[in-house]
Write a structure and sequence with these properties.
The complex is a heterodimer of chains A (147) and B (246).
Chain A: H1 5-16, E1 23-25, E2 36-41, E3 58-68, H2 74-85, H3 95-100, E4 114-116, E5 123-126, E6 132-144
Parallel strand pairs in A: 1-2
Antiparallel strand pairs in A: 2-3, 3-6, 4-6, 5-6
Chain B: E1 10-13, E2 16-17, E3 22-26, E4 31-36, E5 48-54, E6 56-62, E7 82-88, E8 100-107, E9 110-115, E10 123-129, E11 135-146, E12 150-151, E13 155-156, E14 165-188, E15 197-201, E16 209-216, E17 224-245
Antiparallel strand pairs in B: 1-2, 1-7, 3-6, 4-5, 6-10, 7-8, 8-11, 9-10, 11-17, 12-17, 13-17, 14-15, 14-16, 14-17
Chain lengths: 147, 246
């Protein structure tokens, strides 16, 4: 199967949409309505295109960015992020659990898998328009053939 | 071929094309044991004679438990079993008849079905000491699906002298529907194959299989070799033929 970036991006977004109350975009949005998550390509996006001979496997990395509002104060912004970085039973807003709940991303990676490789601390997310939001970044590594 | 980066090396082991799973392949090291024959008259230096030749094939692959891909075929039951192996170095992704390759046959001596740290791609490792000659040959038929009878490209390869052999490997990676297929290696004294002679006829193919065959030298007057396949029935066969003279 080919490495279909749009399909993997859509699959990741669908996993994030399982989190109630989180707005999700497959691309960085022009307008952010917090709490808002979107999928970007990490830099580098494809750190290893040749994990096997014959284009057998490529390693790619996406980053999920989640922005929250700090209009009601930084403390509330921090509190709003806690649920997204939690994990385990009862943690219904967990991004880790949402992504790892279907590592094939709805069939975008059939026979292969992805995993959360890191969860960042709280940081300022700079958007293309120059606006910034308080948020977190979660890089997700996926393995997929290139044939 | 100039120096190259092996991005598209082909690894055929038994009836499996492991190229899409393999991430490292070693066809050697090929060695000749050095027998010590030093005497008092050798001036204080060691003197050796070449002895038995040996080598071992090994491959590290991304493990895959799907049916007929890797572990399903090369599990514990394969330990001690004999397989033909062909490795085609390739930088471009396109393998052509006449491309250099290495072929042999061995017995699987070790297999590690699961290897890897948390978060890493699960790996498998396999080593297979050779139990016959190791030949630098040519690809007679690159992996391709055939549905009808045909002849491969004529390859300039001088026939084996009486002290040499013709060595050939067949890897049938896919097979469906056909009654049977007869795969041969032929030689001729011209590229046109006007007087083609069958040299090696592999066992009649009725499914996915592999075979390694040899033939005693028949003279260097033959200048060209090719693969041929005779298809009976309706269906498809995907196979690789490699051969060489040593």
């Amino acid at each position: 199967m080919p490495l279909d970036v749009a399909a993997i991006r859509a699959g990741l977004a669908d996993r994030l949409r399982t989190i109630a109350g989180l707005r999700v975009s497959e691309y960085e949005p022009d307008t952010v309505n917090t709490p808002h998550a979107w999928v970007t390509l990490s830099d580098p996006f494809m750190p290893e295109p040749h994990e096997a001979f014959k284009d057998g496997l490529a390693q790619v990395e996406f980053t999920v960015r989640i922005a929250v509002s700090d209009g009601a104060g930084f403390a509330r912004a921090q509190a709003a992020l806690d649920g997204f970085v939690s994990s385990g039973t009862g943690m219904a807003s967990s991004v880790i659990d949402a992504v790892m709940g279907d590592q094939t991303l709805g069939g975008a990676l059939p026979g292969h898998s992805c995993r959360v490789v890191e969860v960042s601390g709280i940081r300022q997310l700079e958007l293309a328009g120059g606006v910034s939001y308080v948020g977190i970044e979660i890089p997700i590594r996926a393995y997929c053939p290139r044939t | 071929m100039a120096t190259f980066v092996g991005l598209h090396n082909r690894v055929y082991l038994g009836h499996l094309d492991l190229s899409g799973q393999a991430r490292q392949v070693d066809f050697g090291t090929l060695t000749a044991a050095m027998a010590d024959v030093t005497t008092f008259n050798d001036g204080g230096y060691t003197c050796v004679l070449p002895g038995l030749r040996s080598g071992s094939f090994s491959v590290t692959a991304n493990q895959d438990f799907a049916a007929d891909v890797l572990d399903d075929e090369l599990g514990v039951a394969a330990l001690g079993a004999q397989y033909a192996v062909t490795v085609v170095p390739n930088p471009s992704g396109t393998v052509a008849a006449g491309d250099a390759c290495w072929l042999s046959r061995g017995v699987i001596g070790s297999y590690n079905p699961v290897d890897g740290a948390v978060g890493a791609v699960a790996s498998a490792m396999l080593t297979m000491p050779y139990d016959t000659g190791t030949i630098r040959g040519v690809v007679g038929h690159p992996l391709a699906a055939r549905t009808t009878t045909g002849n491969g490209t004529a390859i300039a390869l001088t026939g084996p002298t009486t002290s040499q052999k013709l060595w050939a490997a067949l890897h049938v990676t896919a097979y469906s529907g056909l009654t049977n297929v007869v795969v041969k290696v032929q030689s001729d004294d011209g590229s046109g194959f006007a007087s083609a002679t069958d040299r090696i006829t592999f066992a009649t193919v009725t499914g996915k299989t592999s075979e390694f065959a040899t033939l005693a030298g028949y003279g260097a007057t033959e200048t060209h070799h090719r693969a041929t396949w005779t298809v009976s029935g309706t269906g498809s066969i995907s196979f690789v033929v490699a051969f060489g003279v040593l």
